[in-house]
Every structure is written in structure tokens, then in C-alpha cells.
## 1
Amino acid sequence: MFFKRKNINPEFEQKAEQISHESEGANTVERLQSVEISNNTQKVDVNEEKEKTVNEARKVLEHELSIKHFFHKQLLETLDLGLLSSLEKERA
């Protein structure tokens, strides 16, 4: 009742096996590429975070520096006025 399958076209089976092996190889290449892409996006995200922290730190330092310059300027003006007033007292 059951018939044994004859190997009618062995070339077709060989081609089918080659194609399946090539597709598996292509899948591994695609997987590697997707892993590389995900690694690159992670690196970009890490670099963007570092850049943001550097920019925030730079803004804080610039703000502190502007405050220091303001108070230094105020101090110099005060010292100049103090020096002028002491000179006027000596002249009088």
C-alpha cells in the first residue's frame, strides 16, 4: 500500500539544501548587522547623554564665573571709591 519515494530529481534536493544553508548564513549576517546597529544606537545614546551632562556642567560653570566676575567688579569699584575717599581726606 505504501509506496517508497523514489529520488526523482537529486539536483533539486541539492539546490534546496544549498539555498537553505545560504538563507541561514544570510540570517546570521542580518542578525550581526542588527546587533551592530543596536550597539551603534546605544553608543549614540551614551554619547548624547555625555554631551548633555558636559553642556549642563559648562552652563553651571559659566553661571558661577559670571557671578564671580560681577562680585569682583563690585569689589573693585568699592575699593576704588574707598581709595578716592582716603585720598581726599589726606588732601584736605
Note: Residues 16 and 86 are 103 Å apart (CA to CA).
## 2
Amino acid sequence: MKKNRSIIFLIFLAVFVYQATTAQAAKPKEEKKDKSEEAKPGKKNEYTGYKTNRDPFGLPDSLSKLLTQDESKDIKAVSAVKIPSITLQGIISSQGMRQVIINNNVLKIGEYVGDFEIKDILQDRVILFYKGKEYTVTR
């Protein structure tokens, strides 16, 4: 039993020495830098990113340059669309007739709330259609 332990220990030691020597040989040698490139003793390396006015949620500068002015105008125009105040007050469903009460008006499928057309009335929501897009209004 002692003989087995000593053999295992010697094998472990040999593997450890082998790993240590090959790892040291694989490390690249560091080039000597000029003393002028080294940090001066009185100067500290400081993080200066907080001093910039960069928007952390905006596009990176490299991508924002790719966005042309015409595209940015289109994006602003889409976001400027005002949606009228729509208050879903109730849904009426009886024997094939579905109606909805929106802004104190009783309406059915195909009628309009402002510029929004009522496309469908379901049990818990109303689907509106405006300029090629569908919008869902829930209670």
C-alpha cells in the first residue's frame, strides 16, 4: 500500500513539474518599453468616460453616422402621430350582435373612433385599425 502511494505521488510530482515547465516556456516574453512610455510617477490613470455627453441608450457614433437625415426625419414623423384618447367602457355581446362602448358612444364593427376603424370586438378587447396597423384596446 505504501509502495502504491509513493508511485502515485511520484507520478503526480512528475506531471506537475512537466506542466510548470511547459507553461513557463509558452509564455511570450515581454518587450522592454522605453522609460518615456511608462506612466509618470506623479500622474494617475483616470477614467474620463463620465466627462463626455454620450447617451448610453442612444445609437453608437459609428451607427448614427450611417443613419441619413431623411431616415431620421421619417422616424421623428412616425413618433409624432398623436393617438386620440380612447376609453373602453364596455363590451356588449348578444346573439351575433357585438357592440362596444368607447368614449360614451355605442359602436359596432366597421364604425370609427376618430380615425381608428373598429375591426373586431372580442370578449375582453377591441381591435382597431389605423393607417395599416392594428391596435388593441383592453379594459
Note: The helical segments are 2-26, 61-64, 69-79.
